[in-house]
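RETRY 2/3 - previous attempt timed out on the joint model. Re-submitting the same 1313-residue input unchanged.
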Amino acid sequence: MVSGLINANPVVYEKKERRARSASSCVNDEDIKDPEHPYSLEELKVITEDAIEVDDERSYVRVTFTPTVEHCSMATVIGLCLRVKLMRSLPPRFKVDIMVAPGTHATEAAVNKQLNDKERVAAALENPNLVDMVDECLAPTFD
Amino acid sequence: MAEASQLIQHIESFVNLSSSPTHQSQLQAASLDVIASLLKKNVLTIETLVREMGMYLTTTDDVIRARGILLLGELLTHLASKPLDDATIHSMLAFFTDRLADWKALRGALVGCLALLRRKSSGGVITTNDAKAVAQSYIQNLQVQSLAQHDRKLCFELLECLLQRYPDAVVSLGEDLLYAICEAIDGEKDPHCLMLTFHIVEVAAELFSDDLLANFASDLFEILGCYFPIHFTHSKAEDFDVKRDDLSRALMAAFSSTSLFEPFAIPLLLEKLSSSLQSAKVDSLKYLSHCTVKYGADRIEKHAKAMWSSIKDAIYSSHEPTLSFASESLDGVGFRDNVILTESLNLLDTVFKQNSGLFLSWIIGDEDINLIFKSISSYKTYKEISLQSKQKLHAVGSILSVSAKASPAACNSVMESFFPCLMHALGLSVGNSTQDCFPNDGNVLRGKLNHGALYLCIELMTACRELMASSEEFKSVAAPANERWYCLLRSYAASLAKALRSTLETSANEDSYETNVYFGVKGLLILGTFRGGSLIISNSIFENILLTFTSIIISEFENTLLWKLALKALVHIGSFIDRFNESEKALSYMDVVIEKIVSLASSHDFSMPFPLKLEAISEIGATGRNYLLKIVQGLEEAVCANLYEVLVHGNPKSAEVVVQLLECYSNKGRQRPFPASVPYQSIYKLANCWMHEIGGFEEVLLRFSVNIWNLIEKSVTFRSQVHEKGLLDATMKAMKLAVGSCSVESQNIVFQKAFTVLSLGTYFPLEDAASNIPIQLNEFQLTQETSISSSREAWICSLFASVIIAARPQTHIPNVRLVIRLFMTTLLKGNVPAAQALGSMVNKLGLKSNGTEVHGNCTFEEAMDIIFDSKLWSFNDSVTLRSNGGLENGSSIGLTDICRGATNIRSLQVHAIAGLAWIGKGLLMRGHEKVKDITMTFIECLLSNSKLGSFSLEQESVVKYAADAFKILMGDSEDCLSRKLHATIRPLYKQRFYSTIMPILQSLIIKSNSSFSRSILCRACAHIISDTPLIVVLNDAKTVIPILMDGLSILSNDVSDKDIVYSLLLVLSGILTDKNGKTIGQEAVIECAHIIIDHIIKLISYPHMMLVRETAIQCLVAMSRLPHARIYPMRRQVLQAVSRALDDPKRAVRQEAVRCRQAWASTASRSLYF
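RETRY 2/3 succeeded.
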């Protein structure tokens, strides 16, 4: 694997105070752990509340996340975590799109394609190593 | 000899270091204990022990010798309380003293010396010479700083012990010892040891003469000084039980131990005061004030100038730039959390008290202060003042207040030099206090007051007030008359009060509104709370202040800040008067404030929001006992008056009030439009106060209840619209509360009164009832049963019932038989309070009437006879009787017969069941066995339909009602038979009832053939299960769970049953999550896991109650922890059901669903494709 961390010294931001929610569907990925760091994705500003778009009536969710560095190889893993979390948390009627924010990643198109390909996600989830990693990242969200 | 060999064995095991460390330490402790107990029991003498150990103590092997000596030392520690003869002690001490030189085996010697030196004087004493020898050996042999931490600690303990307990012995050693101390403590770093070293210095400084110390003072302080300020670099505080504060305090004691440290300490502390480290600053300030007291005025004087400027700097820099104008800061200083500021003011106070002349001259002559005084007049409002100047202004304020507070003399000078020029800045002149102080020309001053000056003026007045409150000499009335500050204040008081009052008249949209209001209220509050009667503040001024505040309370409620501040001020004044027994002021307070407040409550003026009224009343009422009494009395009068008006005249005031009521109703919506309910609510709030001080308030309670009865007696005709349920309920609740907290004697009085009113009533056939003639139940009466013919009778009956409900068991109820008959009749009209009163009576009546038989007194047995055996009701021919009812003698029937359905009037049966249920509850709680008969009656009712075969809808509701009777039996009610209402409660009555009735019901369920009777039985069971303590239910989880499941599925069809569904579900989740009864509960759960899951899954979509859905999902989460093999087959089913819950309208349910899905998904592969 990679020797050393890819982004050894990330900037850590404060968690945003949760606003009171309306009765619409909820998405809570703020507690997902970064695969590299012991911080949550929200603390690293990979995910912000503004970058999540929910349309309850049309059953559509779009998440746009920003990897910490441009060549972050963890982008796909982060995306996978987000997808798994949403799969487990949302009713099946939702269509979920997960995107890397435009211009924040070197291989943006490839990552987007990979994350929204049903077959490849399913295949990834059959890889026990990958599933373990995802589960570890998601563990704090189920407390 | 066997003993000797055993002894050797034990010694050997202690000395031996070869085995593994953990095992070894246990073994060593054990052998130590054995030898110690041998010594204690005198089986072994010390002499023989030493002889046996000889080899271990003298061998040349260092390790063995060290262990041997340690054993001896430890043994002596164990024997601390056993008397030993002087020779033994002497020789042992000599031995250990000698061994101090043996650095390789030092620990044992230290332990031994300590053990001997610490001995209580009762069991053998150490002579001075012995102690001196120890000290000498210590000085010669010990190189403390070269030892390990634990040994160092022992060394310091030894030194401390010598200094504290043998001062005579060590003082003679003089310089040598001091030198040794310096050497020993130099460079110590361990917190535990440091605590000891600081203490050693402190003790040594007290012990040795100043001449001797003088040579060492600089050395000692050099060692100590390095530690200031205490700073822990070790971050984990839990590693040590020594806290930073402990160390700091110990060091402070060492610093101030001798005044010889003064030339070194004060400069150091002053230097550290300018440090940027917060803790260093605080510490320096603390140390300085501590040392100032210890070193004495003479020594401090030369540092005074430097100290003054340092303190001034600290105060200037630590002040918050802005004041908060919130109501909380009205009385306090407002800077409470600023440690540096409080400490510096503390220090200023200390030095000022020590040398007030010097400091006074500096303060008065201080350039900064004078500059501020000059500059304040250039700013008109508080907001205009720049931040920096504000900070300085506050600093000056606090400096002046500290110095004025210090002594009357200081106060004189401060006031003389500053107060007049403040008054000048405010534009006030010496008022003539003899004339009326509040002419109406206050407008001249309006909004013109200079805020800076006002602030300083308030600070000064506060200081004067505190000086007056604290110093003893002002307790005598005449004393302050001679003081100049007093004359000054007095001469300006009138005009000052007028000016302050005018600031309150500013409107809310003005720029400096907040400041004006805050300063105005605060100033007036301070003027109002001067002690010493009317010395400074004449009575008319005081009353005017109160009037100002009260009128604010009454009229300015829209002005929130002003209103809050004024209320707070009134509360402060009230409690001030109460605390200092200011009798004159108390009178004015009563006249002005309390009267107004009381009239506020009873007025029909609805412009002021009710919650505000309530707040004002309760806050002010809580300030003093007399006020509370007065307020309560006023409220009570208001209640009675309003109630009378409502009852007799229908709606009290004419159109005007009606309009107001309607307006209030539509605008606010939260108040009930009945004027009587207003005082009732306040009574309810004040009831908390009553509960705490029942002693003094009992008469109030008594009077309240009697007055209500008088009122009822007086109002002969009731208006029809009185039939308002809310009002009656409220009155009953208040009545129960009041009577319930009365003593037996007062209750007796209330009872007499109530009974007289009752017996005067025309409606009740008391004479008839007395003779045993059955009451005629004709159709006319029965058709009217729901709307009781006269509302007055309903009131009387319900109120009487509530009096009975609140009675204490010892209270004598007049004419019990009559009362029971009365209630029995009203009960059938659907009067629930009557049923509750009956239940309460059978619960509380004594078994055998003790003492002489009073007329009309009735025992429990008699009452039971009346209730159950007498045939109270007879029927006209028009009422058709059911042919197969259990009728024996023609047309007379009893209560239980009606329950069983002896008549064909369903509503009558329902009322009878309710009545019987309450009676049953009373019996159940006292543990009487008659309750069995009652439950059997209910069960008969439950099963009646199966006998009859067919039943109407009406009948069905009766049966359902009978099942719900179990709810009354088992449930806890606030209205009746609670602990507050003095019910007799037998311990574990619920458990007992559960275990007797459940088997019967269970067998009936098994036998039942129709689905309806099954569902009804389940309903009854559900009520019982949900009200039984969980532990009992857990024990027969196996049998309960199937019933629980049936109950859930049956009850979940009807919306009205949602509460019982929820409580059943809670029982289930209790069983599922229980930790203690794991074996019993869990087994049962595992056994019928699939049934449980089937049922719970249905409840996930329960539409009527969110809590049910949430709890159901939580139950599923709990189920996921069952053994894998058992639940795996259900996994798919559960996951599908839960995924629907992900779309639930409530967030809480959705979150639970996510958690549940995760829990169940992870029972097998984590894959999402199930």
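The radius of gyration of chain B is 43 Å. Closing ticket.
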